[in-house]
Every structure is written in structure tokens, then in C-alpha cells.
Amino acid sequence: MEVRDLRILFIISKMGKGGAQRIVLDLANAMAAAGARVDLLIFYHTAQDQSVLVELDSRVGLLNILPFTLASDHENSSKKILTIFLLPLFAMWWTISGRMARYHIAHSNLLLASFFSWICLVFQPLSRKPAPKYIETFHSDLVSLLPWERNLFFVFWKKNDGLIVELRRKDLKILRNRMPENFIDYIPFGVLPLDLPGQSEVDEYKNTYGNIPVILSVMRLQQQQKKVLDLLMVIDRFREIYNKPFIYLLVGDGPDRQRAEDLVRSLDLGNHVKFTGYMDDIKLPCSIARAFLIAGIEDLVGIAGLQAASMGVPVVSLQMDTEWSGSDPIFFNSTSQDVLATELKKLVIDGIYYEKRSRYSASVAQSAFSVNQMVASYSRIYSSLTSGG
Question: How would you label 348-368 residue by residue, b for 16+ Cβ within 10 Å and e otherwise?
């Protein structure tokens, strides 16, 4: 079936700031532009939704199960707990009433959406109407999941018609061995390049931090998957070997922000580390950054890292996969805090080296991580699944 003939439901818990949300937004907009009838189902709102949803194509229908708004993406409130308890009831109703039968594709993203789709599939036999093809994008990696999370995902995925891995290529092999009867593929995410702000705006922003070298991270402040505390240790080591004024700009929020702030105090990094909280637009921080520090898996560094790279910011990645030994990585990465700190120092003090890495980052982000390539890959999978191929 051609994309223009499809009815697609994208399912995700919320549309706050994050790489998964960015991918869902780009896919939904692209499919609507291609002529598909597209709906986006979210379970609750967050305070960060509006800056993301304002970019949603007007042809995409926005469906909201519960009229809850949480203060932040990581809030664990009674509202969120109630949503989790009510999800099975809504999934049962959507399936048995035939509402899911309106769609050819149901594309889930993140754990709560995976749970919702699994409940729909469990109760599908009670519906007299056809089921959509259920596919899911795995936006994380098996390395960073807790054991209970991996086992839960395995239970949910086994019922799906398709699973897309977008980070760790090794996971593709592991999952194919674990679930040989399932369709599993690998599609790396794509990013839209960021535009450089005006020079006067950049200069004004840079002056607020004292016109000294800036190292940037943009991420969810979480230790388990994002390694925020490990990155702070890299910054501590860089402080020791650089021994000059600099700023580490930490953009984002998350459940481990307090732990990160406590570590900054214990390491006496308060003069160097600045927590900004969430930012709707990261162009200005990227425009003044000498380097972008992030935790990555294999040779991928996440949406924010690629957006920074698209503006020519050299990317330095803490390698989370200790078994990975890529001989030709896309971006500079290492499992060693000392090696990463040394690379940051080189980028800060060596102008020629910085310019070389800057040009390289921009060219790679724009050539290897295209949104158009990502959308084309998903379009082929949608068409194949709905055509019986």
C-alpha cells in the first residue's frame, strides 16, 4: 500500500523535549505531507509540550487520552500513576470498540506506548474488526536498560508486527536471535540542521557567560541512560588539566538533577557548571559552544548531539558500550574520562584542530543523518507491512 493511502496512528506518552519526541514529530509531519491520514495519540501533557506541538503539521490530528498536564517530563505524580492504571482500560476500549481498526499502522514509541499497544493486541480477539499493523521504534539501547525494563520490553515486542532499532546496531543482532519470528530492522534517526542565529544575538549570549570557552551538553539529567554524573567527572578532569576559566553549560532537566547539583558542589565545580533547565531552542547554546559533550552508544550521540554537530560543534562522546571497538567512529569517543578531557582541552586550545573537527561534524551531520533518509526508510516498512511483503 502506498503511503498516501495509509491511515497511521503514532502513539507516545507525551510530547515534551526529547529525541524520541523529535523523531515522532518529524515522521508524523512527513507522512501527513505525503498524503497519509495521520493521528498522534498522547497520554498526558507536560509543561514542555507546547514548544514541540507548535511544529505539528495542521493535517495531523492530536488525540489526548487524559486532560492531565504535568509540570515536567520526569514528574512522578498521582496524575501520572493514574494514567498508567487507566491505560489498559483505554486500550481495551479502543480495540473492542473498533477504534484501532481505523488505522493501517499503529506506531508506538517509548515504554508506556509499548504497554498500550500490547494491551490492544491482547484484546484484539474480542474485536470483530481487523487490527492495524503494530510497529515500534526502540529509542534506547539494551545496555542502558535495567534488567526488568529489558524483560518487559521483550514481552511487549513479541506481539508486534515490527520492531525498529535506531541506536545500537549490536542490539539488532541480539534481538533477531532472541525473537527470530519477528520483523526487526535498523533505521538510524535523522535530524534537521539548526540555523545559526544572528551574530549580535550570539555575541550578547556569549557575554552573559564571560566570553570564555563553553563546553555544552543538552540532555535529560538522568544517570542510568544519559550518564550525567560521569560527564561531570569528565569536566572535573578537564578542569584539572586545562586550569583556566571555562563554562560547562548543562541544558536540560530530569530526575537526577539534584544528584548532579550535589556532585558539582562536592567537586567544587560551582564556578564552572551552569544548569539552565529546559530550553525550547538550543541554537544559541550551540552557537557559542567549543565542544559538545555527551554519552553515546557505538558511534551515535543522540538528536541533540547531531543538531549541535549540524552547526559545526565538535562532538566528544563518552562511550557507554564497553564492548564496542569501532575502528572508524563517526565522532570522537572513548570510555576513558582522561582521554575525553584531553580531547576537550585540545579543542579549546588548538584553533586549527578545532576548525577541522568543526567542519567534519557539520558535514557528517548533514550527509549521514538526513530526516529524508529516515522518513524514506519508514515509508518502505509501512508499505511493506500493509502490502503483506
Answer: beeeeebeebbebbbebbeee
**β-bridge partners, 40:** 10, 62
For residues 367 and 190, give the distance between their C-alpha atoms in angstroms, rounded to a whole number: 10
pLDDT at residue 192, rounded to an integer: 85
Write out the three cell numbers for 144. Answer: 542502558
Mean pLDDT of all residues in the chain? 93
- Count Cβ neighbours within 10 Å for each residue of 210-228 and write b for 16 or more, e otherwise: eeebbbbbbbbbbbebbbb
Report the C-alpha gap between 368 and 191 in whole angstroms. Answer: 10
Longest dimension (CA), the chain: 70
Provide the b/e sequence for 243-271 (b: ≥16 CB within 10 Å). Answer: eeebbbbbbbbbbbbebbbebbeeeeeee
Please choose, from the candidates 86, 45, 87, the residue with its C-alpha nearest in 3D space to the C-alpha of residue 67. Answer: 45
**Residue 310, CB-side half-sphere exposure with 13 Å CA sphere:** 22
Give the pLDDT score at 74: 62
C-alpha 80/C-alpha 272 separation (Å) is 35
Which residue in 159, 161, 139 sits closest to 149, CA to CA?
Answer: 139
Q: Band of the pLDDT at 195, cuts 50, 70, 90?
A: confident
**CB 281 within 8 Å of CB 201:** no
Within 8 A by CB and 6+ apart from 114, the residues are 108, 136, 153, 156, 157
